[in-house]
Amino acid sequence: MIVELGHFALVVALGLAIVQSTLPMLGAQRHDLTLMRLANTTALAQFGCVTIAFAALTWAYVSSDFSVVNVYQNSHDAKPLIYKISGVWGNHEGSLVLWVWILALCGAAVAWWGRNLPLPFKARSLAVQGLIGVAFLLFLLLTSNPFERLDPAPLEGQGLNPILQDPGLAFHPPMLYLGYVGLSVTFAFAMAALIEGRVDASWARWVRPWTLAAWVALTAGIALGSWWAYYTLGWGGWWFWDPVENASFMPWLAATALLHSAIVVEKRDTLKAWTILLAIVAFSLSLLGTFLVRSGVLTSVHAFAVDPDRGSFILYMLILAIGGALALFAWRAPLMQPGGAFAPVSREGGLLLNNLLLATATATVLLGTLYPLALEVVGGGKISVGPPFYNATFVPLMLPLLIAVPIGAMLAWKRGSVVAALGRLKVAMAATLITAILTFTLLDAASLGAAFGFALAAWLVFGALDDLRAKIGLFQLPLPRAWQRLKGLPASAFAVSIAHAGLGVMITGMIATSVLQSERILAMQPGDTTTIGSYDVRLASVGEVEGPNWIAVRAVFETTRNGSPVADIVSEKRFYPVEGQSTTQVGLDTSFWRDLYFVLGDQTPEGAWAVRLYVNPLAAWLWWGVGIMSFGGLVSLFDRRLRVGAPTTATAHRGGSAEPEPDGPGARASA
Amino acid sequence: MRFRKRQRLVVIGLATLLLGGAAALILTALEDTIAFFISPTEVAAGELQPGRNFRVGGLVVDGSIERLSDGTVRFALTDTAHEVPVVYAGILPDLFREGQGIVAQGTLDDGMVFRASEILAKHDENYMPKEVADALKQAGYWQHDGEEPAGETQ
Predict the structure, then answer these.
(1) Structural element, H or E, at residue B31
(2) Residues B21 and B95 both lie in one domain
(3) Does A242 contact B at CB distance below 8 Å?
(4) pLDDT digits (tens, 9 = 90+) for A285-297
(5) Does residue B15 sit in the same domain as residue B74?
(6) Which residues from A are below 8 Å from B29, CB to CB?
């Protein structure tokens, strides 16, 4: 009964979405208040309906109702509760319900919190959101009904792919979808702006919190997925340039570019058409990601089920959405008034360079992801594009961007000077140089490349701190004065420094794990000892253990360093009898300086065990860096100005002007 | 307004430079870094020069898995027409077993032994990597479509 109610709620939601996508749009054209206000009501009601459907499906999972095909195929009575719940989105149909639920959530959030939006703009935005909802609800109901019944109902389910039964992966899809779908709001705002033919500072101010929230969620979602791959696949790495990873990375790159260009629109009223285009591109890439993962064109863990009907449905939807949006853009973008002019060397110029580099980098990832598919379609043979491709294309494009970050953040609006910016970054430059020299001389595996990489990371971290220092005039003004300025600084100023410093921390971890990783593959008998790096490792025992729905071979590695114990590291090979599959549990010991990462393999005929031992230096820095970066996004999200409806001048919140303000003159000119 | 014109020129110049640079990077990278997928039959035909990176897919030959005491593994891959000997030093994927369809990436050495740097097996025992299914089809063995969803084969 509850299951049928869920199905029924989805159908009602579709009806509401159809109303939401048409009548408010009509109302906005005709200045009909009643019709425009309908957008609010339908958005909230649609959210209510999809919530009922989502809850119904969750209930079916939790109560192990195997008369529902979806539950039968993806769940099992013996599964722990958390994986019964996460199993809801651990499959094609359920993950789409989650997608639609988050979409409805975003629509409801715009309806609820968007009180400062002008009514016609809000009505049009929600109508576009409704249209996306119609497409996905149709897709769900026509090709992927999660509530299909099975008669007679089986006694037991087939279980969930054990590799998905993991805490990191339980939250990876919701975070990722929050990011993907959050970008739909930005997209809807861009569409509404195009229809109205007007983009101004307040538009940028409405768009930024949504982009920020989506970006934070996307960052966290990608990091969770990457972290999961790191500790479950047992390959010692955290990013494999797998097409499915790329599918989530491309919207992230576009959203990052969008975040930065929206600042220019807000502060300087320029780059408007470009920002709108980025908003379209970012959400289009989210849709493309959904298509790549859900259609099964990519053979991967994520392609749960493959059905050509579904693939072509999403493909048509993709073509309609992207084609329609770009056509609207081509038609309406010329209406945008060009804004303030700026010199190539200026804050705007810096942000534009950021955008150009990120956009080009996105294009290389897109090409690397789609090229094998395209080549196969035209009969050019089967190829795989792997890490070497991206190391040769993506990485060189990122280097100038990363070098430019601290300088760009220091440039004045409208017309700046690189020399002046560098002059204010003396402390950062000195710290960077010291890092380069230290890493080059101290590291055993010293190479110019590694020293350069660490110097680059240090440049980002110290540059971000120096930026903050310069803003408050620390070491230049008397301390109480600097303290005054610190307190007066808007949250967004902290956010920039936090996010850029986080980027630096993350890159430190990336470079350390890539360049300084040590690895050993060998066969060990219980009792054998070996060394890796400065650690002595003894395979203390290998035995069998039993979990709630698995049995495992468990190896305990006693690790010591210079005779003093470090950790007993436990690695497992688990076997899930229900699903007939096994998984690897990496033995992991994380500290500030390194991860010890031990993988247990198969038994050799002589009774020894194949083991793979890694020392990953500074591995944790990678995840901390991502955390710091996301935290920066959150801080910016809570900037007071973003929640105030009317645009305020950029100078209003600035402290005194004892030294030239980085963004003083330009901001004043735009006010 | 001259200022605006110059601004536009700089932006366009910069964008062209970047796209040109990126295109050059991509073209050289595509030349050097991509790995072609081939079948054991093509390996046996000697069409490939040793040292080049590529992917080979097939079924793990029954009884061919040999675990050496130093942790490396030897086995043979087949598309039912020809076999390729493979050596791999590393931990095998959880789903690696005899008769399983897998993909190995690596290089061919002078002795025509495939030295794999990476072994890929699908995380689902019913699932056949698409490349392997195609290679088997070409060798005239595989009857089904290689893309059968796990849940519906019961």
Answers:
(1) helix B2-33
(2) no
(3) no
(4) 999 888 787 766 6
(5) no
(6) 388-389, 392-393
